[in-house]
Amino acid sequence: MAEHEAAQIRSVGDDNALDALLDYLKSTRGFDFSGYKRASLERRVAKRMQELGVDSHLDYIDHLEVHPDEFPQLFDTILINVTGFFRDPPAWEYLTGDILPRILEARPPDAPLRVWSAGCATGEETYTTSMVLADALGEAEYLRRVKIYATDVDEDALAVARHGVYSAKTADDIPAAARERYFERTDSHYTFRRDLRRTVIFGRNDLVQDAPISRVDLLVCRNTLMYFNAETQGRILRRFHFALHDTGYLFLGKSEMLIAHTEHFRPLDMRRRVFSKVLKPGLRDRLLEPLPLPNGRGNPVPEHGLGADALDAAPIAQLVVDGKATLALANREARTLLGIGEDDVGRPLKDLEVSYRPTDLRTPIARVMERRRPERLERVQWLHDDGGGARELEVRLVPLLAGAELIGVSVAFLDVTVQRTAEHELERVRAELGSAYEELQSTVEELETTNEELQSTNEELETTNEELQSTNEELETMNEELQSTNDELGSINDELRRRTLDLHDVNGFLETILTSIGLAVAVVDGDGLVRIWSREAEDLWGLREDETVGAALISLDVGLPVAELGDLLHDAVQDGAGRAEVDVPALTRRGRSVTCRVTVLPLRGSLPGAIVLMRVSDG
Known about the structure:
α3 (38-52) crosses α5 (70-78). A hairpin with a 4-residue loop joins β11 (317-322) and β12. 46% of the residues lie in helices and 22% in strands. The chain folds into 5 domains: 2-78, Chemotaxis Receptor Methyltransferase Cher, domain 1; 89-280, Rossmann fold; 307-415, Beta-Lactamase, CATH 3.30.450; 475-509; 518-618, Beta-Lactamase. It is built from 21 helices and 20 strands.
């Protein structure tokens, strides 16, 4: 089956070769990278191909078929696992100081707290979340209530995260107090505490294909969405929206702003990239209607003068005239408005000023008593002595019946001054509105044209903004790629430094040996060039090491007749002859004549050369 798919892939053109590679990865390994940003994918795959010396995507597919162990290397290159403890410290401080208290306040004291760390990589941010929760709750409460689900698609990264073991360099980002409290030191590594690690469950989850974890109070997904294109980001965010509690929060990385997804999440702090869930009413919420309240009928009202008190507290001036045309009641508002004194209650209405001022009440009261129907008097003008200006009243007369018997008439004075003024003002405004309507109509047309232009401009700005957001995410992706490369170079540099130190140790050891021999020593290579010139040789012949290394021994201008040693060097270097010794007259750097015994030893091994030992005695 795999061979048939590979044959089909090889039949496509070069322009679609990357798509063919992605299809091959999906069909053979189950990894769907089609939702990742194209430019980033091209760079990461090209980096891996360059490391292998492969020129085309189709050749790389062939390489994958022959070398299955290449798949993990490719996935590790594409899935850039750049992370760290307490990355972007201000964001974690805001989460600790503002968001966690809100989460704890919204949940019952005994309710479990569920956290999802999506795209957890090698686990640094997951354990950071664990530490801040343990600080907020206390360790005992944390162990009882908290469960953290950490997911990623990279199995190798998950294996590292499950062990919770990190180098001293990686642990440098952890505050000293937290490192002391939550980690155990072992040699040059730090291990996250075993009891707290049991609250974290690591598992593989593909954000694009797999179902989300539900009922989550905090969702941490930092610098993961930026690797996906806009369509895939929207699909993932819909799953995040489903995963969160209504009171849950989403914590993203510094390059992820969600500008185009405000229907799912709204920013609480855009600078720190913390978002809350936008609540959407479900079907049940839309169908429920408020239930009517009970009307309280059948409950008798106790008689404690409430009726008179309620009438006295009413905001409308009201009189009650009994069947004998006597003023029976006048509330506080009526006494204030109409100038009725408390002594006027109980007197015949005809003897009071209110019977004819502000309008005649005796005639309409008589009609109401006779007809037993309500009556209304409109546009009653009232000029009060308090200097408050003219008022317009509406008088309403209502018969009061006890069964079929008339017991009186209620007279209510409604101050309609404001309403009448409003009506007059409304008429005036309507007249002005009629004249302004035509101008408004033309203005509306101009506004519609302007609105269309603004709408077009707004769409262009939104497009530009999305492009800028995409560019920002792309730059952040490249930054993390560079950081990954820098980590690799750092590892290479550390290795070179170790080897340099080893070489330095070897050279020091060799220098010690040469010094301990007590003889002047020179080592030449197969071409007769000096490679080592000991300090005793410098003292004896007066030439420094930097003046001799790289030069032919027989060409050195010293007091030793080096030309006479050519045959011995040739025999030792070219023919591998055994030990040879010769005594020659020589002149030291101080001009003293000596006899020098020169011993030539061939180098044994893969490198041709010879060792020249020089020992002098007085001539």
